[in-house]
Amino acid sequence: MSMTEAVTEEAPLKNKVLTGNAVHNIDPKGRIVIPAKFREALGSTVFAIKSTDGRCIRLYPEVEFLKMLDKLCRGDVRMTALRRKISGAAEQLKVDSQGRLLVPEEMRLSVGISEKVHMVGMVEWLELWEEKSLEQADDELTEEEALRMMAELGIA
Length: 156
Prior knowledge:
single chain; 156 residues; alpha+beta; Chemotaxis protein chec; six-stranded antiparallel sheet; 41% helix
């Protein structure tokens, strides 16, 4: 039995998706309130890791994070090195009973998040952004490019 199968048997939320966005202040203890619309899909255990470009933090529900690591088990030595890099940088976190999450300060500050956090649902994971960085990322894809790409995929 793989890691994913073991978790999936216990995870009736595996079909929930993370969509939408929200903005919240970070409390004096450094906790982030996870909005109710994201809580069910995230579950109580999440894995936090910086995005590959280092501009935001990705929060993965446990089952999604383990699926990603399972894919990296099936490769060669370089895949093992990538798995080590990802799992070694990840932080396992717990969402408390009031929906708060303590993301390590060093991780938050490394992407510029200090007082306010912008959350964006990315279907399998939730992204945490600093406002200006998110605006810059959003500006990288014009409306025309988005429409063209959607048409190419047959979803426009």
